[in-house]
Amino acid sequence: MPGGLKSRLQQIALELVREVGPRAFTMAELSRRAGVSAAAPYKHFADKDEVVLSLVVRSVRAQRDRYVRAMASATGPEEKLVAFAKAVVRFSYEEPGLFELTLMAGRSKDRSPDLVRYTGEIRAALTDAARYYIANDARRYDLLMRLAGAAHGIAIFHEEGLFPEDRASVEDAEGQVAVAARAILAAVGVDSSIET
Amino acid sequence: MPGGLKSRLQQIALELVREVGPRAFTMAELSRRAGVSAAAPYKHFADKDEVVLSLVVRSVRAQRDRYVRAMASATGPEEKLVAFAKAVVRFSYEEPGLFELTLMAGRSKDRSPDLVRYTGEIRAALTDAARYYIANDARRYDLLMRLAGAAHGIAIFHEEGLFPEDRASVEDAEGQVAVAARAILAAVGVDSSIET
DNA sequence: GTCTATACGACGATAGAC
DNA sequence: GTCTATCGTCGTATAGAC
Fold this sequence. Notes:
The structure is a homodimer. Chain A is an all-alpha fold and about 200 residues long. Chain A folds into two domains: about 1-45, Orthogonal Bundle (Arc Repressor Mutant, subunit A), CATH 1.10.10; about 55-190, Tetracycline Repressor, domain 2, CATH 1.10.357.10. Chain A has helices at about 5-20, 25-35, 50-70, 75-95, 95-100, 115-130, 135-160, 170-190. The interface of A and B includes residues 138, 152, 160, 176 and 180 of A. Chain A binds a DNA duplex (18 and 18 nucleotides) through helix 2.
């Protein structure tokens, strides 16, 4: 079974990052969990960074899957963008390790075409829906920044346990982010230069 | 000069965290920069955690100073809350290390009365301004969560370099967060049960 | 492809002299 | 209060046998 260890290592690395976060991830623990020697992983990955990079790519791909799917199953621009915001909160809740990993994507973007592709696809889906609100590229990008930024921050607040005890469920957090998203969208109104 | 080293260590630890962030902070580097032996700091702090905790307290106090001052010099509830949101963005820009440190505050709150006090003062100032919008405690807390969460997220996006190149200044980020804050506040309207 | 063995460095923390 | 010296632990990474 050649190459069998490589994908197994990736899988275990994923679980490890899910548990302890990207910072505390170590090659030593990876080898331990895989039940192989500390040297073995280095036959499949040049170094630690290469392992982490492959996880970043997986994280972004997973988010693309979720966000694009969430937006596709909603009808109308506002509902699509709200669905995105809720999906961000849910992803951070279900995959805190991968969510934290995402922020490292900006740094390592040069090193992986896949990364560029997946982030591009997320952006394209968002842009598509937001076109309904704003035709101008720059202003529309600003709107998406406010929307995604707000979703990100609310997700973190929820993750950090800052929500009040009696309303700390994921559904509560999704509700809050939905309200915020609708507010941000309502503030820009609808771009009248768009034909139905 | 008894105790002189302790405050010097705190000062240097602060600079160190500002530079490399809380995760990469090490006692070894702290000693090195202070020009003392690796053992010296342990006469003043029980362990690494105690050093970091003292920095968390400093970070929260610094934010209290900024946020309360920013809100005090603005007139009217909306302007006060917008000023808070902008101050969050500016703090994350000017003190990224301390900003990152803040998220560890939730974990260690039990261990420092000062921490509880400072966070309480920030919350009180926010609550005071938000009373204009919502009288009900729970719903007002939700509003502040959306506001602070959005500010936090937009601050992080700016910090991570996700703003477009030609609009990546702090002032641009402040402008974006102000728009988002106003949108979130506008969505709840004004609580009519408030007199004046 | 995987192993054992190992080099090397960093860090946290302590003991005991002064 | 500060030093020197030191221990133990862990991590990254490589060399060479199988």
